[in-house]
Structures are given as C-alpha cells and as structure tokens.
DNA sequence: AAGTGGTCTAGACCACACA
DNA sequence: GTGTGGTCTAGACCACTTT
C-alpha cells in the first residue's frame, strides 16, 4: 500500500468518525505531513484523493474543510465499484442462482459493442444475486470468451470479478454505462418477486480493460425499492 | 495557465492530430520532460490528466499508449452537464410550465442537505419541462435563497442555470447524485402523461459551488421510456 | 540488465484570503 | 504580514516488463 493511500484511508476514517467534523477545517498540510512523517507532496496527494471523492473541499488561502451531506453516507452502491457484491456487503450473505450459463456467438449488436467478430464466442450468463435470502439483482452478462477464459459454474457461483482480476490478472480500465427505468419483463416477474406494476432499475454497461478492449456487456436489473446508484461528480477547475 | 495544463493541452493536440497515433507509444516521460523543459513530476501530472480523460493508458514497465475507442471519445453527452436543457437540445422546442414557485423555510432534512439553518429561506420550485410539446421532466427544486438571489418567474420560465452562471456569476463545483426507479406519484400521473404502472426514473441531486457550498437540492422525474443517463467511468491507475 | 512508469523527498516559490 | 493551499524542481528509489 502506498503512503498516500494509507493516509487517505486514515483521513477517511477520521471524517467518518467525526474526528474532523462537518464543515470544520482539517489541520493544515504542513502539520499533517509532519504528523504522518511524509513530504507535503505526498500528503497533498492523499487530500487530492479524498477531495475527488467529495469528502473535503479546499479553499486556497484558507484551508481544507470537511464537506458533508446526509446523502453522502448512504449504503447505496457507488457506481464505480468493481469489487463485486460480496465485498460491497461484507456483513451479509451473498448468494447466486445460475439461471443460464452458455457459450454462444454474438449478435450483430454485441459484435459492435464488444468490438469482436461474429466467430468470436462469448459466454452468456444469467444470474440472480441474492442478499440475505432476498432476490436483489438479476444480471445478464456476456463475456468475451477469448479474454475471460475457462469460466466455470463454480466461478460463477462465487465472484466473477474476483476471478477476472485476481486469477486472470486482467485489469479493468473503466466502463460505459446507461441507467434507466423499465417495466418488469417475464424473468423479473419470476425471479425478483415483483408484480407487473413494479418499476425496475436497469444498469446497462460495457466494461473495458486498461488497454481499451471491451470484455463485458451486461445488464443488471433490480426492483425500484432495493437499489439506487450514487454518483459524485466534481468539476475540475 | 499552469505548466502541466499547457503540456496536457499540447499532448491532446498531438493525439487529436495523430502525431501520436492510436495504439502507438508516446515518448517516455524523461524524454518528454526534457522536451518541455519541466521536471518529470510535472510532466507526469500532465499525463495523469489525459489518462483520466481516457486519451492514453499506461503500463508500468512498458510505456504510455494512445487509447482509442469510439465510445470513449463521444462521451461528451455526459451526466455532468450544467448547461440546461435548452443547450442540450438545441434543435428542439424547450418549454417550462411552472407548477409552484414559493419561498419557504427548510425542513430538517433540507437544512442538513444544504448545510443551512432553519431560518435561511429557500426557493421552492416545481417545473414541468416540455420538449417538442411532450412532457419530459418534472423537476422539484430548492435553491438557497441567500445564494441564488432575486429569482423571478421570468427566469424560471427561461434557464435557471444560465441565470446562476451568467448573471449571478456563481461557479458550479460539482454534484452528488442518486439515481433510482420509482412508482409514479400523484403529480407524475397528472403531468407526465402516465398510468399507475408506468415506472419513473428519478435523479436526486445536491449541487455545490466551487467553494463547497451547496446551493441546490432537486429531484428530476421522467417516464422510464423518455430518459436514460449515461456515465463514462475511467479508473485511475 | 535495461528501460519503463510510480512514488517519494526536501525545499522553493507562487496565488490567494484575511486580519 | 501571515498562513493557507498550488505548483514545480532535481534527484532518488521502487515495481514492473521485456530483452
């Protein structure tokens, strides 16, 4: 772990536990760099990180303040999280029910989204993610089989993302997402414990490796009352 | 203009004009820092910026490469847009119907979200945004009256965000957003031309000035079949 | 072993706010 | 003027990949 990451973690903790209270000023950078025994550059990098996350804001000539809003500390999924559900809900029972697991050739649309040819096979997976015995997310995923190799049922029951990142060593570079509401489809009615008038939240995404290669197209559907997405957006000045 | 911004601009130009072509490697950091006559730290900061924008990606031990992806570069229709609907739909007729316009004192929750006291008045506005004669978004907005001063009905019919940025000269620093699906409420049924089983997409947001002061809390509701939000998310390496 | 990007330092100077 | 955050340097060492 880098020094600046460790410092950022410690600062996050202090803010979370109100050692630095809302609206209050943090100690100045020189004092903090002395406390952590690092150079001011390194300390500033840590503050850069938590400022990007929206925890603090800085006023040149004045100081660094804790920024807070009740919305901030919710349990909603952060949209830019690739750790998988088990990490996001460490204290809950996370299970998967596999509805479909197959290898197919991609449709025209999928070829275009994943930048592959018609003879490049893709894994096609439908999973129901269950948290604390309640149906939570219905995922339909296509993985480029040439990249995400040797996917087994066993892996799908556990965490696919852990497999991709830890075992295969692939590095995720980013994602393009679309969020919209939808009417429930037949599978939703069957699996998500909802009726025909239950709104559904769907996140559609293409996920890329660091070299720009798309490796996944997926849709994640949840009942309107079980999931929300949060986005912190800070304009770079 | 800082050195690293100038260098980032120059690198953007070279990539845009294919002086560094797609997939090719940039000169290494030491060579570039010599070319621009800056320290390597400063040069790296410039590359950090264009990497965050998704123009290049870096492989430790290998080099820095020009990254291209059609999706990546068209990501300008992003969620973080503060120009107002008229700018987003330049070729369409954008109208507003004012449902409510009032000044009130904030609820406890609003006080916390906007970091104000109970005796700090807020504007309370409900507007229906209409595009090409079709109801599009139902907005409920609270502005901190001490910041967004002298709001008139006239302004609300036009663009509030233009007023805030152009006339008042306030600078928007960012926003915290939550996206979820919802059941239609009574006002939705009345104004958005929907039935009780029409899913609604709601975006809830707190918008901040550059100094971290929240000035707006709002919810924007649309029918599921009229609006989606897109997000491009590039992981910092 | 050589070359790449990533981190970190100790110190300098600048830009800005406020008293 | 004093104190804050922002930028920049010149050089060191580390982590990783390729030869």
TrEMBL record, chains A, B:
Database matches in InterPro entries: Bact_HTH_transcr_reg (IPR050679), Chorismate_lyase_/UTRA_dom_sf (IPR028978), Tscrpt_reg_HTH_GntR (IPR000524), UTRA (IPR011663), WH-like_DNA-bd_sf (IPR036388), WH_DNA-bd_sf (IPR036390)
Record-linked CDD domains: WHTH_GntR
Entry-linked SMART domains: HTH_GNTR, UTRA
Database matches in Pfam families: GntR, UTRA
A GO term, aspect molecular function: DNA-binding transcription factor activity
Source taxon at top rank: Bacteria
Keywords: DNA-binding, Repressor, Transcription, Transcription regulation
BP term (GO), one: negative regulation of DNA-templated transcription
Domain annotation HTH gntR-type: ranges: 1-69
Protein name: GntR family transcriptional regulator
């Amino acid at each position: 772990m880098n020094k600046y990451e460790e410092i950022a973690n410690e600062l996050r903790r202090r803010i979370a536990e109100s050692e630095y209270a809302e609206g209050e000023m943090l100690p100045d950078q020189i004092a903090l760099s002395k406390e952590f025994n690092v150079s001011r550059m390194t300390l500033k990098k840590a503050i850069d990180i938590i400022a990007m996350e929206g925890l603090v804001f800085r006023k040149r000539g004045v100081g660094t303040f804790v920024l807070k809003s009740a919305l901030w500390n919710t349990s909603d999924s952060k949209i830019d999280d690739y750790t998988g559900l088990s990490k996001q809900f460490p204290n809950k029972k996370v299970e998967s029910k596999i509805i479909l697991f197959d290898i197919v050739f991609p449709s025209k649309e999928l070829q275009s989204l994943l930048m592959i040819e018609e003879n490049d096979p893709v894994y096609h997976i439908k999973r129901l993610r269950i948290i604390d015995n309640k149906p939570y997310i219905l995922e339909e995923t296509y993985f480029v089989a040439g990249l995400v190799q040797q996917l087994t049922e066993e892996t799908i029951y556990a965490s696919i993302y852990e497999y991709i990142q830890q075992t295969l060593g692939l590095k995720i570079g980013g994602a393009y997402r679309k969020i919209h509401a939808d009417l429930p489809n037949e599978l939703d009615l069957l699996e998500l414990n909802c009726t025909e008038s239950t709104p559904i939240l769907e996140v559609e995404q293409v996920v890329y490796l660091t070299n720009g290669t798309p490796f996944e197209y997926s849709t994640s559907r949840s009942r309107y009352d079980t999931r929300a997405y949060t986005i912190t957006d800070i304009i770079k000045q």
